[in-house]
Amino acid sequence: MSEPTPPTRRRRGVYLLPNLFTTAALFAGFYAITAAFNQRYELAAVSIFVAMILDGMDGRVARLTNTQSAFGAEYDSLSDMLSFGAAPALVIYVWSLAGYGKLGWMAAFVHCAGGALRLARFNTQIGTADKRYFQGLPSPAAAAILAGFIWVCEEYGFAGGNVGYVSLGLSVATGLLMVSNFRYYSFKELDLKGRVPFLWAILVMLGFAVLFTNPPVFLFTLFSVYAISGPVVTLAMLRRRRSERKL
Q1: What predicted TM-score, i.e. pTM, was given to this entire model?
Q2: pLDDT tens-digit readout, 209-239
Q3: What CATH number was assigned to the domain covering residues 16-188+195-246?
Q4: At what angle do helices 70-80 and 102-124 cross, to 10 degrees?
């Protein structure tokens, strides 16, 4: 009589490739904070944008290699909290808001807390929310607004203390937009593999030309327009629903 085969043990561990990108994004966010403490504000702003690129790659790499995991999703959220919640808040506080006392750190905290609440709400709505839209401004876009503003000011020689009121307004606005109910287009339905009109190729070429001509102004303008698009899209949808009810 043959002996029963022992049950196979489930291998423990994590997928290395996607988590490498997440770790790199986490490092970029942490480096942004250290650069700000060393008064290298332009480098701090650029590091936040680098974290955005790496954060966008880890999920795509996980899907392409079929290495999605619950650990990876939780790790990505923690990385996002540092890179797009704490890092932009601390960088803009050191750069511009420290001289405003309690008002300054409260404004920075609004952005940080908004990022935490935005990520927590996003994680609880996975699988139930409409994939075409985000509820509230995504935290990477909110971080890009603060980082882009710092980068533009550093590029054109505006000291952080001279634009403190603008920094206060942006910090509070981004924090509140992240926890708002405004709907933002997610771009998840874009078919990058399908054919598009030739005009799109020209527009993409022009976009890259403008980006490399003046990256800080282009990025700050782009994400500011995206932030404004949420209230515009939401109000347009509400008006359409009201008109349909009247009919």
Answers
A1: 0.87
A2: 777 788 999 999 999 999 999 999 888 888 8
A3: 1.20.120.1760
A4: 160
Alpha carbon of residue 103 to chain centroid: 25
Q: Which residues lie below 8 Å from residue 67, measured CB to CB, with a gap of 6+?
A: 15, 17, 18, 61
Output the average pLDDT for the chain.
Answer: 86
244, with CB counted inside 10 A (0-12, 13-18, 19+), is exposed
Neighbours of 242 (CB within 10 A): 9
Retrieve residue 131's tokens.
Answer: 């994939």
Q: Where are the domains of the chain?
A: 16-188+195-246
Reported as a single tens digit per residue, the pLDDT across 74-120 is 889 999 999 999 999 999 999 999 999 999 999 999 999 999 999 99
